[in-house]
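Below is a complete specimen:
___
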Amino acid sequence: MIDEIKLGKAQHRGIRAQELLGEGSLFHEIMDKLHSDYLAAWKNTKVMQTAEREKLWQATQILEIITDHLKSYVINGRIAADDLQRFSEELDRKRKGK
């Protein structure tokens, strides 16, 4: 049985995630700024600052993990929207068949 509430929530999360990831969004601007800052800091490290470079690399990886997580919400939201559409169409067919 389809859980329409869960699908609706997943669809809504996907829409919100898409808004965050959208070009020109504040979130997108912040992520780009952080990535640029981390990269600039990494370029300015000294040869012996291995631990500092490692931390900066990890920070850039965390930014990617966050972005990938939001992208998965977008994908799941689209799947939920498709499932809800199919469920609605199925209900309409059943109603017309009666």
About this structure: The chain has a mean pLDDT of 93. Residues 50-97 form the longest helix (48 residues).
